[in-house]
Amino acid sequence: MKKMERLDKILANMGFGSRKDVKRLIKEGRVKVNDNVALNGELKVNPYEDNILLDNEKVIYRKYIYLMMNKPKGVVSSTDDPSSKTVIDMLDDKYLVYKPFPVGRLDKDTEGLLLISNDGKLAHELLSPKKRIDKKYYVEVDGYVEEKHIQLFEKGISLDDGYKTLPSKLEIIETSLVSQVFLTIQEGKFHQVKRMFQSIGMKVLYLKRITMGNLILDENLGLGQYRELTDGEISLLKNI
Ligand code: URA
Question: What is the pTM of this model?
Answer without folding.
Answer: 0.84
